[in-house]
Specification:
Layout (H helix, E strand, L loop, with lengths): L5 E6 L5 E6 L8 E7 L2 E9 L12 E7 L20 H14 L11 E9 L7 H13 L9 E9 L2 E4 L9 E10 L3 E8 L4 H26 L18 H19 L6 H17 L3 H6 L1 H6 L1
Parallel strand pairs: 5-6
Antiparallel strand pairs: 1-2, 2-3, 3-4, 4-6, 7-8, 7-9, 9-10
Helix pairs in contact: 1-2, 2-3, 4-5
């Protein structure tokens, strides 16, 4: 029986077509998507544990971007005949994606999570870093993992006074603006890049141009995810214990004191720290000893 892939194609805004595909590769991952634009292909997968590890109160997320030698039709030569450690470029692309994805996982989601983006093939004049975040977000979108997305990233360059999305390598030397922008449908998540001296209005125009292109990609991801049955019901989880009545009690007892200490205008950082610590200790001392022990972690958190 032939494997039936689910695909979604869309125009990025300048006639170039991007295709999202799932259901063929990495089927054991929680979510996997192949992104194609011309001869450039990236495979993104996401895998996460069902439960969080003990005493973990953060999201253990790792994002890795890899470019295989085979993507350009080569294989490693010399003494080592296998893939080497990540290059500086691969590490930087991983960080670009990480910074955009990390804030959009739920605050109380603490399961170990890995996002892996692999460049399968590439064209000589295409920069795949602009497609990496789209691939990662799409993989999350087709999974049952809770995520406040979708998001995407694009590169915006201004060449001869005209803005363009995801320009080729040969065009970039002529650009006076070269930035990477990550965003959701509603919000800008990250801006990074370089440019010559420009006005504030030029910068805002570049970001708006990028956001308009990202909205197209986010809409395509939403429509793509609706075609995948697994994405329609997100998994339930309970990775931390909350006591909102106790949180309100802490706020009522300490907010004014913390606010007054913060606005005191004391330039001594250590003095401010000592003032906050004294307020915290005063609240702890007001609790019964049993409650101090039982709610020690919640006191530090709230």
């Amino acid at each position: 029986m032939a494997i039936q892939a689910i695909t979604k194609s869309f125009d990025i805004g300048d006639g170039r077509i991007v295709t999202l595909e799932t259901g063929k590769l990495a089927k054991q991952a929680d979510g996997s998507v192949v992104v194609k634009m011309g001869d450039t292909m990236l495979l993104a997968t996401i895998v996460t544990k069902k439960e969080a590890a003990d005493n973990v109160d953060f999201l253990p997320l790792s994002v890795d971007y890899q470019e295989k030698y085979a993507a350009t039709g080569r294989f490693p030569g010399g003494f080592f005949k296998r893939e080497a450690r990540p290059s500086e470029y691969e590490i930087l692309v991983s960080r670009l994606v990480d910074r955009a994805l990390r804030p959009l996982f739920p605050d109380d989601y603490h399961a170990e999570t890995q996002v892996l983006i692999t460049l399968i093939s590439t064209e000589k004049d295409v920069l795949p870093d602009a497609l990496a975040c789209l691939a990662a977000s799409s993989a999350i979108a087709v999974s049952d993992i809770p995520f406040n997305g979708p998001i995407s990233e694009v590169r915006v360059a201004r060449i001869d006074g005209k803005f363009c999305i995801n320009p080729g390598i040969a065009e970039l030397p002529n650009a006076d603006i070269d930035i990477m922008v990550a965003a959701s449908m509603e919000n800008i998540m990250m801006v990074e890049g370089e440019m010559k001296e420009i006005s504030e209005n030029d910068m805002l125009e570049a970001i708006k141009f990028a956001h308009d292109a990202i909205k197209i990609q986010c809409k395509a991801q939403t429509e793509f995810a609706n075609l995948v049955e697994a994405s329609k019901t997100k998994r339930t989880y309970c990775h931390e214990v909350n006591d909102f009545d106790f949180k309100a009690q802490i706020r009522q007892a300490t907010y004014e004191k913390v606010y007054n200490a913060a606005k005191s205008g004391n330039a001594d950082k250590h003095a401010r720290h000592d003032a906050f610590a004294a307020i915290k200790q005063e609240f702890i001392d007001s609790l019964p000893e049993e409650e101090q022990i039982a709610k020690k972690a919640l006191i530090s958190k709230y």
